[in-house]
Amino acid sequence: MIVSSTEVQNNFGKYLMLAAKEEIIITRNGIEFARLQSMEGKLEPILQESIVKETAEPYHFKGRKASYEEFLELTCDDEVNRYEYIDGKIYLLASPTTRHQYAVTEMLVSFHQWFRGEKCTPFVAPFDIHLKRPNFDDPSVVQPDLMVICNLDNHLDERDYYTGVPSLVAEVLSRSTQSNDLVKKLDLYMTTGVNEYWIVNPFNKAITIYGFKNNEVNNIKTYKHSETAQSFLFEGLSVELERIFKP
After folding, report:
1. Residues 153-208: pLDDT tens digits?
2. Which of 42, 114, 115, 144 has a CA that sits 20 to 30 A from residue 35's CA?
3. Is the pLDDT higher at 42 or at 139?
4. C-alpha closest to that of 170 among 215, 108, 121
5. HEC readout, 31-99
6. Nearest to 7 by CA among 22, 24, 21
7. What is the mean pLDDT of residues 16-39?
8. Residues 55-65: what's their mean pLDDT?
9. Given this model, what pLDDT does residue 205 score?
10. Does residue 172 contact residue 145 with C-beta atoms inside 8 Å?
11. Rounded to whole angstroms, how far apart are CA atoms 65 and 94?
12. Is 23 a residue whose pLDDT tops 70?
């Protein structure tokens, strides 16, 4: 099937489902530039754009199935390892690389300066975010690399843990997690109330920003090289790509 990028943006969830059955070729201005395809026959499509050329390595657990209660039991006393729980599967997160942390740090500095004095606050991992999909009994638990929270005071439980949904989330790609960041988390954030998602690629030095509305992709733009990434959600929030990527 061949569809335009605009059509995919407006009906991303639909084409995730269709990709389990056939390959989706995505065009922009009549030119083929990406494809959406299933992985090993499972409903785990991956969007292969020019900004990502490396082959994704699996998480250490390879998505071990478990109940939400089993996940809580595993993580409650583990102060060494970092885990995520996405759609009923546990993932052990690998230690981040230097260029990954360089990008996170530089972005945090830019975000912190821009949000100074505002009601929204930027946070970095490790910081558990519980996101519940419609019609799912259990939430997913993720640790975004960087997030902006605008409703902190109204969503703190008695133990001082955040229980709300961030307005903006950013993930810096690594070889061990990029498949989840590009597909699973994109769909998770889109369907659980996150308004904007930044995918930061330190390998190709690019940033793709997704704007969500009504559980669908409303805006999408990729910035490369010496460009300045601009937020859809927060007018004036920007990041110079040359600054955040390690030389």
Report:
1. 899 898 899 999 999 999 999 988 888 899 999 999 999 999 999 999 999 999 99
2. 144
3. 139
4. 108
5. EEEEEEEEECCEEEEEEECCCCCCCCCCCCCCCEECCHHHHHHHHCCCCCCEEEEECCEEEEECCCCHH
6. 24
7. 66
8. 50
9. 94
10. yes
11. 18
12. yes
Q: What is the pTM of this model?
A: 0.75
Question: CA-CA distances (angstroms) from residue 33 to 30, 37, 55, 129, 147?
Answer: 9, 14, 18, 33, 29
Q: Can you say whether residue 225 is alpha, beta or left, with left for phi > 0 and alpha for psi between -120 and 50 degrees?
A: left
Which residues on adjacent β-strands are paired with residue 83? 92
Residue 94 CB partners (closer than 8 Å, separation 6+): 59, 60, 174, 176, 177
Give Cα separations from 40 to 15, 174, 216 (angstroms).
17, 22, 26
How far is it, in rounded angstroms, from Cα 180 to Cα 152?
A: 26
